[in-house]
Amino acid sequence: MSDSTPARPAAPVVLDVWCDLQCPDCHTALGDLRALREHYGDRLEIRLRHFPLDKHKYAFAAAQAVEEAAEQGRGRPYTEAVLGRVGELNRGGEKVLLAVASELGLDADEFETALIDGRHILAVDADHAEGKAIGVTGTPTYVIGGERLDGGRSQEGLRARIEEIADRLLAE
Fold first, then answer.
1. What one-character DSSP code corresponds to residue 2?
2. Could you report the per-residue pLDDT of 150-169, keeping only the tens digit for each?
3. What is the chain's mean pLDDT, rounded?
4. Which stretch of DSSP H or E encloses residue 112?
């Protein structure tokens, strides 16, 4: 009989990403987020947080659509697909959000209903309010280990800084 108890896996480090799905800088950040996911796997939990900017006409609807996609089990693929089509979203609006849902095999009728009935407004508003409370003013903004990193000014060096913080937190 052994006195040692099996070590529990450490909780993942959390990276909150305050995002506007109509933001070209968030589109640019997508490559870094994929690389971070690949590098850290389950040791880094990347959480999308909604921060639709007033200057982007369809960002609030896109945030609600992501919530619906998550409810239908495809939040991340939907998010990545919409971010990959920022220019198209700028031109096509909610039709693009519904088209992406259909392309991913989601229930586009339910998406349309969700955008009309506003069932996800509170989730989006809560993220936005929390972002404002911690000083988020633009997107993307990253928060890891209590440190806020503003990607809206420049993506230069941010992934390396996130990795530095994540490595330090994982070593603790």
1. -
2. 876 667 788 999 999 999 99
3. 91
4. helix 108-117
Those residues with Cβ within 8 angstroms of residue 47's Cβ, 6 or more apart along the chain or in another chain:
14, 15, 16, 17
Residue 91: both structure tokens together: 């031109």
Instruction: Tell me if the bond preceding 52 is cis, omega within 30° of 0.
Output: no
Percent of the chain with pLDDT over 90: 83
Q: What is the pTM of this model?
A: 0.88
User: HEC states along 26-65?
Assistant: HHHHHHHHHHHHHHHHHHEEEEEEECCCCCCCCHHHHHHH
Whether residue 23 contacts residue 86, with contact meaning beta carbons closer than 8 Å, is answered with yes
Nearest one of 38, 37, 39 to 48, comparing CA atoms:
37
DSSP annotation string for 5-16: PPPPPPPPEEEE
DSSP single-letter state for residue 149? E
Do the beta carbons of residue 40 and residue 33 sit within 8 Å?
no
Q: Cβ-count burial of 107 within 10 angstroms (0-12 exposed, 13-18 middle, 19+ buried)?
A: middle
Amino acid at 31: G
Phi-psi region for residue 93, left (φ > 0), alpha (ψ -120 to 50) or beta?
left
- Amino acid (one-letter) located at 66: V
Token readout for 87 is 């220019």
